[in-house]
Specification:
The chain is of the alpha/beta class and 185 residues long. It has helices at 13-24, 44-51, 53-57, 80-90, 108-112, 139-144, 155-165, and strands spanning 3-9, 32-39, 61-66, 95-99, 119-123, 134-138, 169-173. It starts with a strand and ends in a 12-residue tail after the last strand.
């Protein structure tokens, strides 16, 4: 079984640089892969190709640069659901785990190896506006609910709710390593 950690990064290479070593430590060729979608950002892929070529060669790391002018149907400023779906499409795993660029894998790694097809894992530190940053499901469930929708910042909450309505059981995950602040140092 392959587990795909799916990350979108656009304009936040500074965060990816701080989380990457930790997150790559959980990868293993043929079992665990980190998929990074460089969205409307031409700096990420060259950086990863220069400094992480070994990971790219053996499949532990995948990177794709994607440029477009997509406008979310809901009028939100950022197409969260749209870009997450693009990053999840990069993954080859039976299990897909959304991992925001400012987040660390941590405890998710062990939990995902025991995930059941009827479960959805989310971080316990869920934000009031519906953000989670770390969500894992089987690809089959992801496909059944239609992936993420563009609902602005509430895309995580919307996705989880649709998984639950499809019959999934919620598994809460403690995260001992908090996400990085979204303010560049």
């Amino acid at each position: 079984m392959i587990i795909s950690y799916c990350t979108v990064c656009g304009g936040r290479l500074w965060q990816l640089r701080r989380t990457l070593e930790h997150n790559l430590s959980f990868t293993e060729a043929g079992r665990f892969e980190l998929c990074v979608l460089a969205y409307n950002d031409s700096t990420i892929e060259p950086y990863l190709r220069e400094y992480y070529a070994d990971y790219l060669l053996d499949g532990r790391l995948k990177v794709k640069t994607h440029f477009d002018n997509y406008q979310p149907a809901d009028g939100s400023d950022f197409a969260c659901g749209y870009v997450k779906n693009l990053s999840h499409a990069m993954g080859t795993g039976e299990i897909l785990f959304n991992l925001d660029a400012d987040n660390f894998i941590g405890e998710a790694h062990e939990l995902l190896q025991h995930l059941k097809p009827s479960q959805v894992i989310k971080s316990r530190d869920f934000k009031q506006d519906g953000r989670s940053g770390r969500i894992g499901v089987y690809r089959e469930l992801f496909t059944a609910v239609g992936g993420y929708r563009d609902t602005g910042r509430t895309d995580d909450g919307d996705f989880i709710l649709r998984c639950l309505r499809a019959g999934a059981k919620l598994v809460h995950m403690n995260c001992s390593i908090p996400p990085l602040p979204n303010v560049q140092p």
